[in-house]
């Protein structure tokens, strides 16, 4: 979980921000609709329709999150005296979204309590990944407020995924 920047130090890639995010968008749109189908199957199947709007929401939120949030934290870290790399931040935040791909498949389980347990664990793991790796960028400076806000933002994304796509 930690040491991500040391592993990508020589060659950070854009695979995470691009392909992991794109895969997550399709998974959220498809599995979000399927989860709605599974939940409504118990009551009345005649009123269920595939909602294409899930794709628009997933693309807007995930691409926006993967591009804007790392850029904002890059500028905040620079403002407070650290010298991070924007490409490394994009890379790290993109890879932090990977855990949501298998989680979106697990969120198909039609047991609401289990869904909440899954999203809390996944949100916590993703937040922990961000926190541990942002500590490496602080260069001894005390930026715990920035690190904590990044972790809270990552956890808020997990809650948004659960509430919007798998309610």
Automatic annotation (TrEMBL):
It holds the Pfam family Yip1. GO terms for biological process: vesicle-mediated transport. Residues 4-159 form the Yip1 domain. It is found in: Golgi apparatus membrane; Membrane. Its main location: Golgi. It comes from Leersia perrieri. This is Protein YIP. The chain crosses the membrane at residues 14-34, 54-77, 89-107, 113-132, 144-165. Keywords: Membrane, Transmembrane, Transmembrane helix. InterPro entries: Yip1_dom (IPR006977), Yip5/YIPF1/YIPF2 (IPR039765). GO terms for molecular function: small GTPase binding. One of its GO terms (cellular component) is Golgi membrane. It is a multi-pass membrane protein. Belongs to the YIP1 family.
